[in-house]
Specification:
Number of strands: 14
Bound molecules: zinc ion
Radius of gyration: 23 Å
Length: 377
């Protein structure tokens, strides 16, 4: 093929991609708006719209109100043209979610299943994925991929878990799952997946510190609109920041890590009850013991936030399982404690609270394929 031929093809591809991404960002738009905003010729836009519509990527649905003349077709992407499936692996259960091209989790479920490094375990997890796809009669082409968020730090090529002291899953391979699945598969550290969802929800953020308040604590650092992996993949593991060298023993072998104070497990242990029981009782304000436990929890969290804010001068995102339980009052109290005799103040509006709860890592994992798709249409 001649050089000119190639150039025409890639230019066509670029235009198609520009039009699709514009519609995606606007959510709903009209042909004339695309022409004006992208400064593209009417016939080029028409051609691309026809092409995208034929491929099933976009739809023209309804009309815009018009002040005169012909009403304009409302154009939008077909948000479930493709879907992505995310799995959040935990020690005693796994989460499964399916998200559309806007990242809406239209399906979530929790399946109790203890992790074991056996073919039977991997088969049970992947069977659930296949069951979900079969029940909904999704065609294989509709599935962008299956993305696994696991506790434990992965290798830079995302094929193997290198550090996995919580689940004892060091050496777990993506292949352990992917051998049963006829779809693209991906493996990520759950804290990083959670941060990916938070970044998705806050595209305006250049940098942030993410606290993943899950059953085990996790964290991530966002800089330059990206999740910082680090030289050996452990950036953001704030769970092992030492709060008290004489504190409780952490699974990492050290004493007094933030994990032993601010994980949901630690909170459950000091309260002597499940999180689901703890918060309703706490909010009744009848138990001074529970109030004290929560105050201590916030105190330790504030201590960590205050220190980390000196390293990364950026907003803080409270994410994961415990995040939806935080009240406005909790955040105010947290802000006050962070700023007590602090050299630099952290503004109240620089503490953001995630809304996806325990499904945060699974949804974030699923977004890996959605993000990839949107940028390559
Ligand atoms: Zn530790």
């Amino acid at each position: 093929m001649s050089e000119k031929g190639l150039t025409t093809i890639s230019l066509k591809k670029i235009n198609r991609s520009k039009v699709y991404q514009y519609i995606y960002k606007k959510k709903q738009t009209s042909k004339m708006q695309i022409v004006q905003e992208l400064q593209m010729g009417l016939s080029t836009v028409s051609q691309n719209l026809n092409l995208l519509e034929q491929e099933g990527l976009i739809e023209r649905n309804g009309y815009f109100e018009s002040t005169g003349g012909r009403k304009a077709n409302a154009i939008q992407i077909v948000s479930d043209f493709k879907i992505s499936i995310g799995i959040g692996i935990l020690k005693n259960m796994f989460h499964i979610t399916a998200v559309d091209l806007y990242g809406n989790a239209f399906y979530t479920d929790t399946i109790p299943l203890s992790y074991s490094n056996t073919p039977d375990y991997y088969k049970q997890v992947t069977d659930k994925v296949k069951e979900f796809i079969a029940e909904n009669k999704y065609e294989d082409e509709k599935i962008l991929g299956i993305s696994f968020a696991t506790q434990g730090i992965t290798s830079p090529d995302h094929t193997t878990v290198l550090y996995g002291n919580i689940m004892n899953n060091a050496g777990m391979k993506l292949e352990d799952f992917s051998q049963y699945l006829p779809y693209p598969c991906y493996l990520e550290h759950d804290s990083k997946s959670a941060a990916f969802l938070e970044l998705w929800n806050h595209p305006e953020l250049d940098s942030a510190v993410v606290f993943l308040l899950n059953r085990n604590l996790g964290g991530a650092i966002i800089t330059n609109h990206q999740i910082h992996q680090g030289s050996t993949m452990h950036s953001g593991t704030l769970e092992h920041i030492c709060i008290d060298p004489d504190g409780p023993l952490c699974y990492c072998g050290n004493h007094g890590c933030l994990e032993t104070y601010c994980s949901a497990n630690a909170l459950e242990q000091s309260a002597g009850m499940s999180i689901k029981e703890f918060f309703p009782l706490l909010r009744e304000k009848k138990s001074p013991r529970l109030t004290k436990i929560w105050e201590d929890y916030l105190k330790h969290l504030a201590f960590a936030i205050k220190n980390l804010n000196l390293v990364i001068d950026a907003p803080v995102i409270i994410s994961g399982y415990l995040a939806p339980y935080f009240t406005e009052e909790d955040i105010s109290s947290l802000t006050e404690q962070i700023n007590t005799s602090a050299p630099f103040l952290l503004k109240r509006n620089n503490i953001l609270v995630g809304t996806n709860g325990q499904y945060t890592p699974a949804i974030g994992a699923a977004l890996f394929y959605v993000d990839q798709f949107i940028h390559t249409v």
